[in-house]
Amino acid sequence: EDKKHIIQKQSVLMLLSIFLLLIGGFTYLIFRPHTLVMFSWLKFINCESLFPQRTFNSDSKVIEFFIYSLPDGFWILSFLIAISLLWKRKRTCFYIYSTPYTLVSILFEVFQKYEIIPGTFDFADIVVLLIFHGIGILIYEFIILEVSYEKQKLD
Asked: CA-to-CA distance for 44 and 26, rounded, in angstroms?
C-alpha cells in the first residue's frame, strides 16, 4: 500500500511536469507571433495551420503577463520537477543540473536587454523565473525528498 502511494505521488508530479510543459508550449503556439525563429519548425513540418495565431489588442498587463512571462515559469518548473524525479536522493546532482538551467534562462533575458540576442527584455520574466525556480526547489526539498526517503524506508 505504501509503495503504491509513493508511485502515485511520483506519477502526479511527472504529469504535473508534462502539463506545465504543454501549457507553456500551447500558450506560445497560440498567442505568440509565428514569425519567431522558434516556430520555423512549424513551417518545416507544414503544421502552421494547425495552430492559428490569435492576436488581440489589449492594454491589460495581466494578459501580457500570462502570455509573455508565465510560460517561462511553467517551463522552468516543468524541468525542475522532471530533474527532481530523476535525481531523487542526490541533492547535489539536482542542484548541479537545475541551477544552471535557470541561470542560463536569466542570462538570455539579460542578453535581450543589451541586444546580444533578439527579443524583448522584461524584468517580470526574471522575477517569474526566480519564483518558479524557488517553487521547484520547494517541491524537491519537501515533496520529492520525502517520497524518496519513504521509499527507502520500505526497501
From this structure: 18
Torsion-angle region of 115 (φ positive above 0: left; ψ -120 to 50: alpha; else: beta): left
Please give the DSSP secondary-structure letter assigned to residue 39: G
Of 34, 67, 75, the closest CA to residue 51 belongs to 34
Angle formed by the axes of helices 70-86 and 2-31, nearest 10°: 150
Question: What is the model's pTM?
Answer: 0.87
Residue 125 CA from chain centroid, whole number: 12
C-alpha to C-alpha distance for 19 and 143, rounded to whole angstroms? 18
Q: How many residues does the chain have?
A: 155
Is the CB of residue 136 less than 8 Å from the CB of residue 144? no
pLDDT tens per residue across all 155 residues of the chain: 588 888 898 999 999 999 999 999 889 888 887 777 667 777 788 887 777 777 666 778 888 899 999 999 999 999 999 999 999 889 999 999 999 999 999 999 999 999 999 888 999 999 999 999 999 999 999 988 887 666 666 66
* Cβ atoms within 10 Å, residue 145: 16
